[in-house]
Amino acid sequence: MTASRRGDHPPGCGLHSATVPVPGPVPARRTPPVRTCVGCRTRAEADDLLRVVVVDGVLTPDPRRRFPGRGAWLHPDPECLHRAERRSAFPRALRVPGKLDTAEVRAHLHRAREGTSGVRDTPGSVIEESKVDPS
Ligand SMILES: [Zn+2]
């Protein structure tokens, strides 16, 4: 009869060897959150982007990320702001109907560009410990 060929795969063929490389625990380097710039659609670390929120219908820069709710992320770059405006990316990202005035954000970018790192926005209500929605 035909010989069964079942027994003839060589021992230690490698497929079932125990030395499977295990991905292992992630080293204690925390990966920074990544967001997408609404202007150029490039992904970047959240630290490199400016968070923008809507407060009372006004587009407001939120560099300290303390406003709750939905935020849009933008490179602190007038070019990206310009692109976002053209594509009405802010209303879309923030789920706000209609156009949004980007004057505040533009002014913020101007200040940032001039090197005055002092962000002097002091909104009346300081929201502490609020979970920022990672939108
Ligand atoms: Zn950008």
UniProtKB/TrEMBL annotation:
Residues 1-30, 111-135 are annotated as: Disordered. CDD domains: YlxR. InterPro entries: YlxR, YlxR-like_sf, YlxR_dom. Residues 35-104 form the YlxR domain. Transmembrane segments: none annotated. Pfam families: YlxR. This is YlxR family protein. It comes from Pseudonocardia petroleophila.
